[in-house]
Amino acid sequence: MDRSHKPFLAVLAGERRDPPPVWLMRQAGRYLPEYRAVRARVRDFLELCYTPELAVEVTLQPIRRFGFDAAILFSDILVVPHALGAEVRFAEGEGPRLDPIADAADLARLDLARLHERLEPVYETLRRLASALPEEVALIGFAGAPWTLAAYLVEGRGSKEWLAPRTLARREPRLFASLVDLLTEAVVEFLSAQVRAGAQALQLFDSWAGVLPEAELERWCLAPAKRIVAALRARHPEVPVILFPRGVGAHLARFARETGAAGLSLDTTVPIAWAAEAVRAAHPLALQGNLDPVALLGPEQALLEEARRIRDAAALRPHIFNLGHGVLPPTPPERVAALVRYLKSAGG
Amino acid sequence: MDRSHKPFLAVLAGERRDPPPVWLMRQAGRYLPEYRAVRARVRDFLELCYTPELAVEVTLQPIRRFGFDAAILFSDILVVPHALGAEVRFAEGEGPRLDPIADAADLARLDLARLHERLEPVYETLRRLASALPEEVALIGFAGAPWTLAAYLVEGRGSKEWLAPRTLARREPRLFASLVDLLTEAVVEFLSAQVRAGAQALQLFDSWAGVLPEAELERWCLAPAKRIVAALRARHPEVPVILFPRGVGAHLARFARETGAAGLSLDTTVPIAWAAEAVRAAHPLALQGNLDPVALLGPEQALLEEARRIRDAAALRPHIFNLGHGVLPPTPPERVAALVRYLKSAGG
User: What CATH number was assigned to the domain covering residues A3-345?
Assistant: First the structure.
């Protein structure tokens, strides 16, 4: 693979590019009318994720419209629990619902046996994307990290504080470790299969890492991240892995130093200059981020000034411009267009 | 005031004490059967906050049962919006509901005119507590910080992401600044009156500071905290202020360095040894925290080991032992008793 044609991959290999490559988390989604038109054709959200024709189409929509440097597979982190046998339902406007795991009998109902079979439509989506994307656009595969997936499986739904998984992890640490181990293995298998299907980079979303104290973070987030990065490097040394441990604040540098990841995605709250200093020893690690998605809901002038500040603060590191969290549904598409136009024109 | 009799105040004055003084956020609350008995006597939660006889009783319950080194006024951060004229309702099991502020007309309905009149029952509670508490127990007053109060006022309820206030702050920064200014003034007046009524230390809870990017955090959290600490120091130089900017991660040191606060309360996610290093320049600032409240739901042995780790990691700073967030309703009171017993016996 010739990286020089794909700025996104060049930066993950340690190059600095000006202007920085750009893509946005949830760049395919409800804020786009063409996405809503496709979404209306299926009854439920998982059906969209599992129908290659439609998943390819919504993945490509923002590439056509905005000219991003990377396309990320359209899917959801909960396809892994689903492929392990968990019930996963997406009720309109309510977020996901799962049958909560509370004990060993619940855990025993999950297994790896049919993982690839159930995820085959995702792999087919990636194969089609790999041949459909323009030469200069990279294809990103992804998965939820084990802690975040375990949190949904134990809580049974989204949460602010995630007390159910945090309590189970303390009361039944061996049971919880079995769950995290199973998910770690599933994530490695899933991401490795995504590479075989055409993914050129991988991102691991630990969206709820930020609720854990240090010792728990080490055990349930950092250790699995190390295992996942190591397993993928062994199998696919050419494929960079980006970690997104959202909300981990002062612990961020450990994810850089201790895992061997090629990139670190920064959430909205992280001062990018601080992060650049904190990961100095982990050269040439790329930083990704971290514009506040709410900035896309405000006036254009303030948006572009904030984008400039982030680009400037990251200028001495390999940097991929992104948000610190996903695009919000009320985002005006013209704001995204203005942001990309600004970034592409402001370099040099 | 002779601080040597009150270990909590001695530590806030810069002394190290071994064992460290201890109190817990939400030490008065639903996990105590004697609290639930008092709660059952009133129809709604605000009535409990505004009935001095009952508020005094529930404040004293954990002091009698566990022998904490500080009692914190039993109240709620939303009494300030309520005293400014906002509708505030606590529906059972649902959390607070407020009529959301969306524009200048909504904001104009809030005013300071009747603040002290409406909060008089809170001051009466403090006066009674000041004479009822044992000599060695300090009395803490508190308020919600302006950003967190504004977030509830604009969102109208609790939230994970607080998109309504974050969006309003970007779309209508002048309106939002007026709201934060009004709340800053109200908080100063409220805390100052608490001191006149007998509070010997003050804690400012910025529970939702952790969702903001750096520039917004500076404007809506750090700047108001500076103003509040400066105004209170001018009026009551002997009364220490503790800041609790929850979830601010890498920004924590700025709250220490730039505000002149006497203490910094650490949330669960902050490695206390990292925080001690980060605030080194702000000697003799006291650190407070930061045991995970979920540890109180797990086995006693693991709880005491974690308490020991925190005590040891903070041993070189003035340290007040506390949780990183409030006591959870399912907490067994005997775990709290075991924790306090352990801390009191393990020093020396």
Answer: 3.20.20.210
